[in-house]
From TrEMBL:
Its EC number is 2.3.1.-. InterPro entries: GNAT_dom. The lineage of its organism: Bacteria, Pseudomonadati, Pseudomonadota, Alphaproteobacteria, Rhodobacterales. The keyword Repressor does not apply. Residues 1-22 are annotated as: Disordered. PROSITE patterns: GNAT (PS51186). It comes from the Bacteria. Residues 42-179 form the N-acetyltransferase domain. This is GNAT family N-acetyltransferase.
């Protein structure tokens, strides 16, 4: 996978930094736990107003972001983080829906790190987690204007359903292959 991200220098506009194999050491994906709550909250607080709306389907205050992160059920949700140069820049969450074999997937990536494949990498990690844990259906809710989530849903072969105010991409997860007896 070829990755690219934007960086800023004090004396000029954003410019691209290649994260090709020689630079991939700067990018790390790992599971997050309740111990990472501060990192999770800080990441969500760094999202622009537009990106918060895309992630939470409405405008959301700092106070609401903090409450969301505190209220996340870390014992049941699958949460992955993408770290660039040691800082959490993208988060993927898969929250199982109680009493079903379904889960809701959400992705957030900070503006300067979008369009470099982090969202897709987080999504694929969560689809694999769903497969390993028996979640057969993954739901991705996103606002109509969120082209990035629409593209992820399309790439996963999601069936798109229009719901009031949002679109829902529904992905059927292939069963984990069984080992021969």
């Amino acid at each position: 996978m070829h990755l690219h991200y934007l960086s800023r220098h004090a004396d000029g506009p954003p410019h691209g930094t290649d994260l090709s194999p020689a630079h991939l050491g700067k990018l790390r994906l790992r599971g997050l736990t309740a111990r990472d709550r501060r990192l999770h909250t800080a990441h969500l607080l760094r999202l622009s107003a537009e990106d918060r709306r895309a992630r939470f389907h409405s405008a959301i205050s700092d106070k609401a972001v903090i409450a969301y992160s505190r209220g996340l059920d870390w014992n049941h949700a699958w949460v992955f983080g993408a770290f660039v140069d040691g800082t959490l820049r993208g988060v993927g969450e898969l929250v199982p829906l109680e009493g079903t074999d379904e889960g809701e997937l959400s992705i957030s990536v900070e503006k300067p790190y979008q369009h470099m494949g982090i969202g897709k990498m987080l999504t694929l990690a969560l689809i694999l987690a769903a497969r390993r844990t028996g979640i057969g259906t993954v739901r991705m809710l996103y606002v109509h204007g969120n082209q990035r989530m629409r593209a992820l849903a399309r790439d996963l072969g999601a069936k798109t359903i229009a719901a009031p105010g949002v679109l829902e991409g529904v992905v059927t997860v292939a069963e984990k292959p069984r080992r021969p007896a």
